[in-house]
Amino acid sequence: MPVGQPPVPARPHLPLNALRSFEAAARRLSFTQAGEELGVSQVAISRQVKALEQWLGTPLFIRGTREVRLTPEGARLLPPVRQALDLLALAAGQVSRRERRNVLSIQAYTTFAQRWLIPRLTRFHERHPDIEVRLTASVSPVDFEHQDVDAAVRSGDGSGWPGLETDFLTPIALLPVASSTLLKRRKGKLPAEALSGMTLLHSLARPNDWEIWLQANGAEQVVDSRKGLKFESSALAYEAALQGSGVAMGIQVLVEGYLTSGALVSPFGQAVRRPGGYYLVRPRHRPVSTAMRRFRDWILAELGAAETGG
Questions:
Q1: In what order do the strands lie in the sheet with 151-156?
Q2: Total-model pTM
Q3: Which of 76, 107, 180, 245 fits a 20 to 30 Å CA distance from 140?
Q4: Each residue of 138-184: pLDDT tens digit?
Q5: Which CATH number is 16-96's, of 3.90.640.10, 1.10.10.10, 1.10.1420.10, 1.10.1750.10?
Q6: Which regions of 92-150 does DSSP assign to beta strands (E)?
Q7: Do the Cβ atoms of 196 and 227 come closer than 8 Å?
Q8: What would the CATH number be for the domain defined by 102-310?
Q9: Which of 242, 272, 235 minimizes the C-alpha distance to 259?
């Protein structure tokens, strides 16, 4: 021991495997599901939890016929155990990455990933070459408990996401887009009623956008918002619009590239801003890594520059 430093108090020999089993079982309120998560049997989880209860001298679960519930002692123990395991995982990950890149797993909607994020990731890589971004695309809700995801881009009003930290990224403004060849001789701004007789292109992931836009522009009685071609995602609807198949309902931040290049035009009515917007969400209980902090700062700066024209 170095001279002048106080002695380090002896730590009890904590049963780490039992604490890990307890955390999984307490989080899921199921020994069976905890076993599936950790790759062991339900019996093994039960044995580990029992050993921890004996070590602590107090019950942690109330065991019923078909369910288990935490005792007050178990509920008090869960948050610090979860935090400690997260810190251990983060520390181990940082050490194990000394000779390799930091890995950051991001999930985004398919269209957001294709039309906004992927074209800009090169800039993030140039600024932070030590961080490897692993991007996945999905329209399904993210499950941070079961998926290897650090953060996700989701849309909403910022509420209804318990346990998640949220950063507002950008608003959602709806505007119809079409190829200039489809419109042929039609020039300048066109009223919403001009969509009557045209083929509407729908995204099944956003089924109400056409109805919302037509109502806001006073054309719901003239244009049938239900008719047209339907696609799994907005990305496919945009592609159909590029091919001249009809008019797609665009999200402004996602179609700006098309509008700037002239591949698509938006002469119809007025854009309609929806409540809320896109958010970057991540689990509140996880420590924020340096890679996560840098990605958050970068994406907020990118969207801020886009909104100000910078």
A1: 131-137, 102-108, 151-156, 272-283, 164-177, 247-251, 200-203, 229-231
A2: 0.65
A3: 245
A4: 888 888 887 889 999 999 888 888 889 999 999 999 999 999 888 87
A5: 1.10.10.10
A6: 102-108, 131-137
A7: no
A8: 3.40.190.290
A9: 242
